[in-house]
């Protein structure tokens, strides 16, 4: 089938596009190639895609309403995987407009394109950050997510609500995937694994927030992609058991679903660093710091809904995932 993948030069976008191409789909990848982080890494990811049969790249900014409308009308994708976004929790305090443009205006343009062009299913990236100050573990999609701690988290929660409105008003099948701390080869340079690896190899100290005691449900990229692709193949349908007197946020009388996708095994940051030290054969010099504003102390995904729906649970051990990242990093940078 013909699938539009937004953010195709991004970390998750590149891996998702490759998986779809390998199974024989036609992929139209779009990206604005912005400079939030090293553009040469985005170009290198794109180079992994451009020679693949069935792939075509269009450089475009999703916040451009007219250009996005033209793209959808021209390409007529059957399904859409929306991964483009302004990422980063802390950056929102410095540049809030970037989140409004990409994550709200851009997402509205994606929804409009889907509903006006008969898209069969839209799968979009949400985030574990929507759980905000919720402390009930593990996080389940049936819990409330009404207290985001960052603009990024608020924009992702808004995406979920916007998607539900389109599912209800226009019967557009939509599924949101709440990603939990994705890591692996070709990852983002602003993420902890990438930053730590670079500094440890350079003999520089690493910033360890919350004194290393916070925990994340680190999820390996291959597991994320497997969950996204399986979900894409199962278009959301109205929930016949939906009870408007006792509504749950993850299903609806509209064709709408929300799923967590995480490793279901939170790892303390200090152990994560220990795995990295083992893989690198180096010891990190740690600069212990307090928790950053907008950060949460722990994430932990309940993935029972995803497993029931598509028969898949992320399962890559953190030790193996970190080893694979280090192998890629050394090869890519010649270290």
Which helices and strands appear, and what pairs or packs with what?
Blueprint: E1 2-6, H1 11-22, E2 26-31, H2 39-50, E3 55-59, H3 65-75, E4 79-82, H4 96-116, E5 121-127, H5 151-170, E6 174-179, E7 182-183, H6 192-202, E8 206-209, E9 215-216, E10 219-220, H7 221-232, E11 256-261, E12 267-268, H8 269-280, E13 286-289, H9 304-310, H10 318-333
Parallel strand pairs: 1-2, 1-4, 2-3, 4-5, 5-6, 6-11, 7-10, 8-13
Antiparallel strand pairs: 9-12
Q: Could you give the count of β-strands?
A: 13
Order of helices and strands: EHEHEHEHEHEEHEEEHEEHEHH
Report the radius of gyration as a whole number of Å.
Answer: 19 Å
Main sheet summary = 7 strands, parallel
Task: Give the overall pLDDT as a whole number.
Answer: 95
- Count of helical stretches: 10
End-to-end gap: 40 Å
Q: Low-confidence parts lasting 5 or more residues at pLDDT below 50?
A: none
Quote the beta fraction.
15-25%
Which outline best applies? globular
Q: Portion of residues in helices? A: 40-55%
Strands in their spatial order, largest beta sheet: 3-2-1-4-5-6-11
What class do helices, strands and sheet pairing give? alpha/beta
